[in-house]
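User: Structure tokens for both sequences below?

Assistant:
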Amino acid sequence: MEDRVNYYQFDREQWHSFYPDGHVQLNEDNLNQIRGLNDRVSLDDVDVVYLPLVQLIKLRYAQYLQWQQQKTNFLQMKEPRIPFIIGIAGPVAVGKSTTARLLSFLLDQLMPEERVEMITTDGFLFSNAELKRRHLLERKGFPESYDMKKLLTFLNDVKRGESVIKSPVYSHATYDVVPDRMQRIDRPDILIVEGINTLQLPTNERLYVSDFFDFSIYVDAQPELIEHWFLERFGLLLDSAFRDPTNYYYPYAIGDRDEAFDMARRIWQEIDLKNLEEFILPTRNRADLILHKTKHHLINKIYLRK
């Protein structure tokens, strides 16, 4: 990774050495609930990679709280507790959601006095009907397919300390935003925001989404590996959809499997890979930390901004 001059680079052994004695109550059943469809995070990954990462986040969080207290003392005013926001970015199928869920679980376990909540920016996609109206359905996932004004307003409300904020919900089963269903966010101490667009500069906006983040992570891998995981996940989605006619993947699950995979490869080449190369990958260097994966979703390198 030739553009890592602004980052310290560590392999698994080096990274683990910074916090070798970390421990958390976690078993395979817990991991099975956290893992994505084809993400292979292991208990060893938790010990070697994620526990040192959580320790680093705890240090940043303590620094953040100290600054918040110093600022309110200096201004001689009482302010509401402002959530610490962690952003998690990366391409489709790379394992962002698993990273977000695992961090949420570990922070809950290791910082029990703090309340942790998590959202995905998928909920801020325009509905499929709206994407069709705008002739953007084939551009789903690209920057213009998101209601970025709504996402920036949501994050601004979080950082203003608003008591209850609502985030739209997305269903991967229906491949659409769920009508009239909202997730309530009520001043958590830590909010995790996960999505492919979390480090991007929205169209016609002057703010990056990441301007609201206090710590940001990019989950990275070579495109060839991501394509393999994308197609692997697609097959698992087909396997789980054939009994549910309301599932978006049902027509593909009951149809010709080769034709379905041909379609999936076309989506990867014409949509997801293009989106990765043009809009997602260029934001990688905005992250505070990069988790680089190799085969079998193994994190082999960790990059920390200097």
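Moving on to the next sequence.
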Amino acid sequence: MEEKLALIRFNNVGKSYYFSTDLDVHKGDKVVVETVRGLELGELIADLKNIDEFKLDTELKRVKRRANRADLDLYEFNKTKATKSLEICKKIVSQYDLDMRLVNCEYTLDASKVIFMYTSESRVDFRELLKELASVFKCRIELRQIGPRDKSKIVGGLGSCGLPLCCSSFLGEFDGVSINMAKNQMLAINIDKISGACGRLLCCLKYEDDIYTTEKQRFPKIGTRVKYEDKIVKVKGLNVISDLVKIEHDGNVSFVSLNEIKILPPKDHKHEQRGH
């Protein structure tokens, strides 16, 4: 079989990476690959692609084999082992005066390396801790500092919508989220209400941002004047979902349908502003 491109993910909602393979594997298959961390079990999450269709500037690591029963059993054993190792590590960390909170533990498939993930508000000097952990676990140790979003992705929970957190249920990677997205969707800038369990801006602010940007092009800008029932009124707000425009005239405020107003041409708008 000719060389193909395989897209592989290592956790249910983790990042995905490309590897090369000449094996007859298919979407949904479990495979064993060599990564920078060591030997790992991953899942093929898409059909194989022709490698010639992509302009690759780096050499890809290869898929070693399709996972067999021994690999799958070892993976499950390592998950149980990681849970116990995390508790052991927490007890050891408590003996040191270190500002770090352990979140998760993972073993590579061959258990040659154990990765402990932690959060901290500052840089941690864990040189002495590393020595003790190495003597206890008898393998390579990696202490990886993660951010609040990564912590929520690992720990999980429920969002303000009542559903499982997006990051721990289907988001493979975090998209950039800015306060301008909340403003674009005309949300009240209440940081507590537009922040997720991680304390950062809600990932879901990204989902509807593009459609709001597109739909708002049909509406007049807030602060401009439009024509409604032969009167010139001022636009005070919008409801993009319901196609409503909030208008003000002589101190009276009301919502009217977008279809009921006439957006003035730029020159008429300027004339009305000068006349006002």
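User: Anything stand out in the second?

Assistant: The helical segments are 69-94, 127-137, 148-155, 166-169, 179-184, 209-215, 266-275.
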